[in-house]
Amino acid sequence: MILPPRGEAETAAIERAWRRIEPLALYPRPLDTSRVRILHVPWLFRLPWFRRFDGYTIWSTILLREPLDQVDESLPAHEAVHVWQGQHEWVRLWLSYVKPSTFWGDRSGYYENPYEVEARAAVDRTQAGARNGPPHPVDS
Ligand SMILES: [Zn+2]
């Protein structure tokens, strides 16, 4: 796939997302931000599988339903956690999502996926004013 070069706003968003989740030290190695892309692909989210998501991460590529300048900062941060997870244990990560129970019936299987739990917690803990966890870098 040929992608347009990474733009300034995109690079800045990736750096902000990383600085936000970095203090949580979830994984031993830092996120390799040089490989991360954030792409706005509205058509993708009209497909049945993707309709339920606002963001979707494949390897180091974060796909967004809305343009980057219109999404809450929490979304790139959440997806950046998934990139970070994938850079450390991609086999377990992908296996956890292909388990049939993940998408059967209601959404609870997906919601309770440990990687989803971790990504949501990372965003919650780094929300401005959060009490449980390292302070958001801009709070200090
Ligand atoms: Zn997620």
Number of helices: 4
Taking the alpha carbons of the first and last residues, their distance comes to 41 Å
Q: Residue ranges: pLDDT <50 for 5 or more in a row?
A: 135-140
Q: What is the number of independent domains?
A: 1
- What is the CA-atom radius of gyration, in angstroms? 15 Å
Q: Determine the fraction of residues in helical runs and give it as a percent range.
A: 40-55%
Q: What is the overall silhouette?
A: globular
Q: Major β-sheet, in short?
A: 3 strands, mixed
Provide the residue-averaged pLDDT.
Answer: 88
Beta-strand fraction estimate: 5-15%
Structural class: mainly alpha
Which hetero ligands occur in this complex? Answer: zinc ion
How would you characterize this protein structure?
This protein has 140 residues and is mainly alpha-helical. It has one domain (8-125). The protein is built from four helices and three strands. It has helices at residues 8-21, 74-98, 108-112, 114-125; strands at 37-40, 55-58, 61-64. It has a three-stranded mixed β-sheet, covered by helices on one side. A hairpin with a 2-residue loop joins strand 2 and strand 3 (61-64). Helix 1 crosses helix 2 (74-98) and helix 2 runs antiparallel to helix 4 (114-125). The longest helix is centred in the middle third of the chain and has 25 residues, at 74-98. The protein is globular. The N and C termini lie far apart (41 Å). Mean pLDDT is 88; it is low at 135-140. Bound molecules: zinc ion (ZN). Zinc ion (ZN) binds at residues 78, 82, 116, 119.
